[in-house]
């Protein structure tokens, strides 16, 4: 549908959109201006001033190095890579098995089983924090990478199952039956037929849950001290008490965003597919 | 042989059950139990009935957090949802759609924590992106996040900036999958752009609009990261949301029972908002 009408209304429309675009880019521009200066320059110069051009690359690099090493974001980045990969890949495998069983194997009352597993998604995370803190402490999993990975897989599983069940329904029952007649076991059918035919579900789950786990701050705050994920660490760095200079925090924010920006812009098609499934809840 | 096959099926179901029961269902049940107790983590929980809930609805701090949470939800419906709907219709009718979509979608790729960190630089009193401009114009500097009468609104603006693009993409998907005939018919009848929008497009978009609204309300009721990063709920607990109150009471003040009661209140509000969506899963539907 094209907006019809006179030239004036088109000019107004485009100016309005352009104004919003500028508003949307303003904070991002601020961050890029902040990292062009060394912390000392940032304290002395006007916010929107740019130091002499040849020094910008060096200043920015210095801020990135400080964020990564001195502020310690590097190790948190590595932790988050482990957690987000575990959350994405782990929940995809767990959910693919359950989705396969619910749709293609003989489970009594599959709808009730699906509902009981999916019901985990109905509660806000606040409902899980205290018991998980107690449980991980008792089991020796508090402040461990294993404990965090397990918790993230658990939190990611219900939505992953929703995705997998939807895709499992698109695998024709005849294909499964034919393989069974050829003498394939359930495990062989799962691995050689079901998984290859539902690759797209794997990608959707991975993108969605990798992003969610990477962006989480809350479980990291409650369940870790030393093996903090990157967002929890960034939040602490930006606190007043940490005393980290603004250009270094800005560099940290860029570093912490790189993986999800790359994944989301690169695989946007799958992300929108997952969104429509999530919205369809 | 048949029995073994059936056991097989349940074996495939086991890992999902294990993770969901361990990480979500048991914890949720235990939180409900704790909400009826007083517990400082050191001694054992002591049953106090509804005392925590009475305290939730009589404590000025938590009532203020409830008020802020309501503001967040209303603000979310006002900005990221309605603005996204209007923008989607406008963008759908102009050139350079891809460019506009990408710009508004950019903040969606960032974490709420990162959005908070970025906007803290923007709002900062000392050499912030906004205050430096105001100062150079001779207007002086303004306390923004430290001003408890406006900080919640400023942070809702951050959420709008971050979240709007997501709704925009959903609305655009909805708009582009609309049937052509009713819109063409209205055009032939001489309806104007806004008449078509109000009488034809909007009713056709109703299903996706309801979903976007429910999603926005559920996400915003448990808002934690942006206000935590930007103000820690301060100054003097003035900008706390319920999710921050829950964290503060439980993990900073060791009132586990009281914190659990706040968690249950958040869960109840979310479930009310999710009710419509839940109905979609009834077997008959």
Helix/strand layout:
The complex is a heterodimer of chains A (281) and B (285).
Chain A: H1 7-34, H2 39-44, H3 56-70, H4 73-104, H5 110-118, H6 126-138, H7 145-168, H8 173-181, H9 186-197, H10 199-215, H11 218-223, H12 230-237, H13 246-266, H14 268-279
Chain B: H1 2-34, E1 37-38, E2 46-47, H2 51-56, H3 60-91, H4 97-105, H5 112-123, H6 129-136, H7 151-176, H8 180-188, H9 193-204, H10 206-221, H11 225-231, H12 242-252, H13 256-279
Antiparallel strand pairs in B: 1-2
Helix pairs in contact in B: 1-13, 3-7, 3-10, 4-7, 5-7, 5-11, 7-11, 8-9, 10-13, 12-13
Defining key terms:
heterodimer, A: 281 residues, mainly alpha, MetI-like fold, 14 helices, globular, B: 285 residues, two-stranded antiparallel sheet, 72% helix, disordered C terminus
Protein described:
The complex is a heterodimer of chains A (281) and B (285). Chain A has helices at residues 7-34, 39-44, 56-70, 73-104, 110-118, 126-138, 145-168, 173-181, 186-197, 199-215, 218-223, 230-237, 246-266, 268-279. Chain A has 281 residues and is mainly α. Chain A has two domains: 7-69, no CATH class; 77-279, MetI-like fold (Orthogonal Bundle). In chain A, helix 4 runs parallel beside helix 7 (145-168), helix 7 (145-168) packs antiparallel against helix 10 (199-215) and helix 8 runs antiparallel to helix 9 (186-197). The longest helix of chain A is centred in the N-terminal third of the chain and has 32 residues, at 73-104. Chain B has a single domain, classed as MetI-like fold (Orthogonal Bundle), CATH 1.10.3720. Chain B is built from 13 helices and two strands, in the order αββαααααααααααα. In chain B, helix 7 (151-176) packs antiparallel against helix 11 (225-231). At the A-B interface, helix 1, helix 4, helix 5, helix 6 and helix 7 of A face helix 1, helix 3, helix 4, helix 5 and helix 6 of B.
């Amino acid at each position: 549908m094209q907006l019809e009408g006179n030239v004036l209304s088109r000019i107004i429309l485009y100016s309005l959109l352009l104004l919003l675009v500028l508003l949307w880019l303003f904070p991002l521009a601020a961050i890029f201006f902040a990292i062009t200066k060394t912390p000392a320059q940032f304290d002395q110069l006007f916010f929107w001033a740019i130091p002499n051009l040849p020094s910008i690359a060096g200043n920015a690099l210095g801020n990135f190095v400080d964020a990564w090493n001195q502020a310690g974001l590097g190790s948190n980045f590595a932790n988050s890579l482990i957690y987000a990969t575990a959350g994405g890949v782990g929940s995809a495998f767990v959910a693919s098995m359950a989705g396969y069983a619910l749709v293609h194997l003989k489970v009594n009352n599959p709808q009730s089983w699906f509902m009981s597993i999916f019901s985990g998604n109905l509660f806000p995370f606040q409902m899980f924090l205290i018991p998980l803190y107690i449980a991980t402490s008792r089991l020796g999993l508090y402040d461990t990478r294993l404990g965090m990975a397990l918790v993230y897989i658990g939190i990611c599983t219900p939505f992953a199952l929703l995705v997998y069940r939807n895709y499992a329904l698109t695998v024709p029952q005849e294909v499964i039956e034919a393989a069974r007649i050829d003498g394939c076991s359930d495990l062989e059918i799962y691995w050689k037929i079901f998984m290859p035919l539902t690759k797209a579900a794997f990608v959707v789950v991975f993108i969605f849950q990798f992003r969610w786990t990477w962006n989480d701050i809350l479980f990291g705050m409650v369940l870790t001290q030393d093996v903090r994920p990157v967002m929890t660490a960034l939040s602490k760095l930006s606190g007043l008490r940490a005393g980290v200079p603004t250009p270094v925090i800005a560099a940290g924010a860029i570093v912490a965003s790189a993986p999800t920006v790359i994944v989301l812009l690169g695989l946007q098609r799958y992300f929108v597919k997952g969104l429509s499934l999530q919205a369809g809840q | 042989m048949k029995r073994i096959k059936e056991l097989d099926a349940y074996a495939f179901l086991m890992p999902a059950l294990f993770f969901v029961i361990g990480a979500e269902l048991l914890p949720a049940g235990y939180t409900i139990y704790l909400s009826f107790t007083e517990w400082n983590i050191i001694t054992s929980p002591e049953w106090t009935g509804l005392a925590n809930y009475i305290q939730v609805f009589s404590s000025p701090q938590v009532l203020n957090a409830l008020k802020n949470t309501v503001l967040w939800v209303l603000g979310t419906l006002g900005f990221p949802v309605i603005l996204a709907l209007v923008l989607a219709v406008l963008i759908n009718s102009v050139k350079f759609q891809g460019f506009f979509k990408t710009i508004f979608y950019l903040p969606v790729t960032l974490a709420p924590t990162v959005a908070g960190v970025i906007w803290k630089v923007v709002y900062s009193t000392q050499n912030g992106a906004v205050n430096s401009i105001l100062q150079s114009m001779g207007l002086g500097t303004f306390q923004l996040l430290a001003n408890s009468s406006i900080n919640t609104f400023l942070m809702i603006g951050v959420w709008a900036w971050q979240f709007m693009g997501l709704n925009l993409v959903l609305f655009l998907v909805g708009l582009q999958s609309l049937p052509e005939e009713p819109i063409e018919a209205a055009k032939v009848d001489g309806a104007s752009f806004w008449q078509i929008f109000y009488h034809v497009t909007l009713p056709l978009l109703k299903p996706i609009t309801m979903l976007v609204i429910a999603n926005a309300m559920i996400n915003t009721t448990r808002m934690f990261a942006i206000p935590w990063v930007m103000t820690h709920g301060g100054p003097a607990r003035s900008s706390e949301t319920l999710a921050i109150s829950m964290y503060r009471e439980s993990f900073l003040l060791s009132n586990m029972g009281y914190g659990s009661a706040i968690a249950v209140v958040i869960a109840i509000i979310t479930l009310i908002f999710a009710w419509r969506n839940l109905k979609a899963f009834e077997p008959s539907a």
